[in-house]
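Practice set, problem 2.
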Amino acid sequence: MMTRAGNPDRTGGRIRRERDLLAEVHLSTEEGIYGLILVAGLVAVAGTAGLSSIRTLVFVLVTVAVFWVAHVYSGTVAAHSSHQGLTLRMALRMARKRSRGLLAAVVPPAIPLVLAAMGVIDGLLADWIAMWTIVAVLALLGFLTYRRRSAPLGMCIAAAISTAALGFVIIVAKALLHH
C-alpha cells in the first residue's frame, strides 16, 4: 500500500485504521492520556468510598467537566497571550479542540458504569471493568504508537506494558485500599 506521498505504507492498513480511529476520538493526545489516568484514579477513589455506579459515573463526569473547563480556560489564556494576532475566539476554539481528549477519555470506562446503573452488571464488577478498560486503552495506545513507527513486535509490547503501567498501579492501589 502506498501513502499519499508515494512512500510504502509500513504500518499496514489495519494498524493505520486503528490509529486513525484513536486519533478521531482524541485518545492518543496528551489530554486523552491524561484524561484516562484521571478517570482511572476517580473510579478507584469512588470504588474505595463505596459509591454506587450511578454516583461513580456522576462523580467522574462532574470532575472531568471541571478539569475540562479549567483546561480550556488555561489553554485559551495561554494561546491568546502568546500568539500575536490570535483573537480570543480563535484561542478559545483552539483550546476546546485540543482538550477534546479529556472528554473522550470518559467514554470507555463509562460503558460498564452505565451498564451497572441500568442493573445489567454488578456495581463492583463495573468499577473493575472500567479500570481494566482504561489499562487496555493505554496499552493499545502504547502498542500502536510504536507499531506505526515500524518498531519490532517486542518493542511494541514493551511500549504497551509501559503505557498501561500507571493504570495498573492505580488498580493495585485501589485493591490495597479496598481490602
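Problem 2, part (b): a different protein.
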Amino acid sequence: MKLRRDPFQAIADPTRRAILLLLAAQTMTAGSIAENFEAARPTISKHLQVLQECELIDSNQKGREVFYEIKVDKMKEIDQWLEQFRKIWECRFGQLDNLIAKLNHKKP
C-alpha cells in the first residue's frame, strides 16, 4: 500500500518548498537538486520521497538517471485552496484602508 501524505505537510518544510521552486523551473536529478543545498544527499532524497508521497512531484527514469518534475495540477489544487484566504485578507486590508482614510480625513 502506498503511503499518502497531506501536501500541506510537504510545503510546511522550507527545504521542500525550495525543492519545489527548483523543479518549477526545470526537471532535475536528485544530484543536481542536492547541489543547491548544504544538506547531505540522503536528506534531500528523503525530502523528495515526501514530495512524491504527497503527489507534488513525479519521477521518471531515463537510463541510469532519475529525473524529478513538479506536478502542476497538484500545485494548482493547493493554490485554489489558498485562494479563499487571499480573498478574506484582501477584504480585510480593504476595510483597513477605508478606516485609515476616514481617520485621516477627520484630522484637522
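Answer key, part (b): The longest helix spans residues 72-106. The chain has two domains: 1-70, 72-108.
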